[in-house]
Amino acid sequence: MSSYEEIVSRLRTSFQSGKTRTEEYRISQLEAVGCFLEEKRKVLNEALAKDLHKSVFESEVSELSMTRTEINFAINNLKSWMKDEYVDKNLATKLDSAFVRKDPYGVALIIGAWNYPIHLTLIPLVGAISAGNCAILKPSEISTNSEKVLAELLPAYLDKDCFAVVSGGVKETTQLLEMKFDYIFFTGSPNVGKIIMAAASKHLTPVTLELGGKNPCYVDRGVDPQTTANRIVWSRFYNAGQTCVAPDYILCDTETREQLVPAMREALERFYGKDPQQSPDFGRIVSGKHFQRVKALLASGKVVIGGGSDEEDKYIAPTVLVDVKETDPVMQEEIFGPILPILTVENVKEAIGYINRHERPLALYAFSPDNKVVNHVLDCTSSGGFCGNDGMMHMTLISLPFGGIGNSGMGMYHGKYSFDTFSHHRACLLRSTGLESINTIRYPPYTERSLGLLLQAIETKRKGFCSIQ
């Protein structure tokens, strides 16, 4: 057997032994991940700084803290999540027990992403452990230093019979996908998501695909320019724009644009100084390949803020573009870098029309002093998530599901949604062996009287509805 076959076989044997099913075992493994984060905090922060030039602030907030929160929330609520969920019954099953059992799927494959390499690998693992699964983690090879920490240090904290971390690139991932898994959780681009889904289909393996897309940001006339600029600049240029839920472009009218641009210039200087390349708080593009891809997008439209770059440092300045056309290269793909195009529209109706002509995004943002406008955008569009008058903050609530729709993904996680994603909701009905006379109405030979009685016993009636015969 190949090494991957050996790993999957070992984990499947452990799963079938029932080892992962108890609450105590799940909590012990969740606590182990928490210990890893705490004891290797310095090493993790150093790896993130090497991969993405992440400041300790951004690493702590968006990588370590978010993962710790998920672990603690799962531990605090696991007992209630694991309980059978009893459901309503019809007259025919009134004396029986009907419930939903939350069963683990088995052996899960979790493929992480490079832009938040700790967060996007470990938070799905929290869901897999909480639900009682075994799991193989495949961190992204693009964030090489973070991958090395996860591959070399995390296994010492986890039960090796139930969890494994594997390294490698496209070739290794392709070999891994030939194995039969019981669930696959992937975070990455829509193009690779299609490959994952095709591989999963060979074994009819269920998948969660956390993808991306071009997230629109509509800015209405009458907003406070500086407050709006602060919030958009923070969410767009956090992690050097390498965030799947970052605003990808702005839609606003010309008058609003003229107010917004100088306000964004002021916010950028306040956040990162006159030379953002010297700021300890501004990130870098993850690799030379991605640097070249993002740099090429600077040719779209007209640069009004930023535009500079340094290939050796993998630095691209926080940049704002105007006079951008729908056909420009910067509008043809998710930017995933520190560039923010502004498209002009006449009004909210035109903005909604533009949004709805394109693939449904992972996140959608609307800024307006009028709540009716924000709610109008919400009502008339479709997206994975929505946030009014701010950017990315909906992600901080683990009470909300996180996931895409259509081209931006399928499935959801965070908080209890992670537990549910990695659980098979098993329908269970336990009946009495007695009272057989009650069942005679469903047995042949059929009669009109039996039909009437049976329908009364199993049908749900519409409330408040009266039918005159």
Molecular structure report:
- There is one protein chain.
- By secondary structure, the protein is an alpha/beta fold.
- The protein is 40% helix and 16% strand.
- A 7-stranded mixed sheet has the order 10-13-14-9-8-15-16, with helices on both faces. The protein has a 6-stranded mixed sheet with strand order 5-4-3-6-7-17, sandwiched between helices. The protein has a 3-stranded antiparallel sheet with strand order 1-2-18.
- Strand 3, helix 5 and strand 4 form a beta-alpha-beta unit.
- The model has no long low-confidence stretch (mean pLDDT 96).
* N-to-C CA distance: 70 Å
Total individual domains: 2
- DSSP strand (E) fraction? 15-25%
Q: What gross morphology would you assign?
A: globular
Counting copies of identical and different chains, the oligomeric state is single chain
Name of the CATH first level of the largest domain: Alpha Beta
Radius of gyration: 26 Å
Count of individual helical segments:
15
**Mean pLDDT metric:** 96
User: How many β-strand runs?
Assistant: 18
| Helical proportion, percent range | 40-55%
Q: For this structure, what is the CATH homologous superfamily of the largest domain?
A: Aldehyde Dehydrogenase, Chain A, domain 1
State the major sheet.
7 strands, mixed
Uncertain segments are none
Strand order of the largest sheet: 10-13-14-9-8-15-16
- For this structure, the CATH topology of the largest domain is Aldehyde Dehydrogenase, Chain A, domain 1
